[in-house]
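A note from the maintainers: we've had questions about how concatenated examples are separated. There is no special marker in the raw files; a new sequence line simply starts the next protein. For clarity in this README we add a label.
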Amino acid sequence: MDTNEDSLDGVHGSRDSARLLRVPFDGVRRIQETHFRRRRRLARKKAHDRRVQRILLDREGRRERNRVRQRLHRVSKSLVWAATRRRAAIVLEDLTLHGAGGRSRRMNRRLSSWPRSEIHRQIEYKAALAGVPVIKVNPQWTSKTCPVCGARRRDRVGQDFVCLACDWEMDRQINAGMNILKTALASNEALARAVRFRPGALRDDVVSPLYDLLREGGDAREEPSGVESLAGTA
């Protein structure tokens, strides 16, 4: 799964089927934007009284953290439960952000509020309690690499990744999820023995939200092309 601001995006697969999967964060980003505006309004309104301002801002911050944490708990619980039902592994990025990197203040604020560490922490400890393996991989180049031919793009990639070598086209976040899976297969011998992944079969597939996966009683549907794909991984 590729970790983004609004969702986890990637591939769910079983022994003979695969599908593109999106796990939304249940409105976390909208909640953060709402509380940011409230804090800014309170800071201006109570600028003459720093003590009251600090109390009100602290209270608003606690409300935001509680609301965000509650929603992330629902997301992580659902994902781990789905992996437990299907006896699957969860592959995540080993994320670390270094410095400001010349980004704008607005972008640095968005990245600082991005709950990447919290959602990973919740998934990892719940997966450990449920006996679900969690594999962490290096996320470098995952959003700029073609999962079909391996070609890389060094220029800026928009919402959709387009390979200049083989004309592969896919949503950038889903594309990163595919490359995360390929990296896990290359670095984990046990997983590689059980999984055969063919990204070309998913080229025209529709992205499914997590609740569709939870509502299903059985495994994922057959791939459109009928080729064999990954087994036992989420």
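[label: protein 2]
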Amino acid sequence: MNLDFSNPAVISVVCVVALVIVLAVVWVVTRQRNRMRTGELRARFGPEYDLALREYGSRSKAEAALMERVNRVSRMTIHPLTDAERERFLADWEAIQARFIDHPRGAVTDADELINSTLKARGYEGGAFDRRIADLSVHHAPLVEPYRRANTVTVRAGRNEATTEELRSAMLLYRALIEELLQANTPVVRRDVAA
């Protein structure tokens, strides 16, 4: 078969075939990039990825929202605590744990405030709870669900609706959060939280 490349019809067919091939290659490459991005976001955000999918209703919208979190947090200066800050927060945590026995609701509220203060000292901007959770999820995705559960109890405690067992559970969750956020070489001293 001999193609006459001086014929405009042949040139048009060749151009269309080349365009189809280029578009197919672009489509395959884009799909692979999206799969890689999806895999990276799933690995980074864990259960938060699935929550975003439910919240936004589509993969592309959920992934765009998660990437916006990453971009927002990347503009912050997140840093470890100084030794002095770490010691102060550890001392504050010890005082809050000791207070739980006599004032469980107040201790849970203080624990929530200590988490907020620790986040701010680490360089997170703070703000409403949903914003703090979103920002925290970028570098500490496994902490998000425990933080949500603890905060839910704290809100209920503020309305005098939380049981002592729920308050104790919230304190245990806050303890795990503070341990992770302080990133101390020595663990936070654990006291049994009385029920």
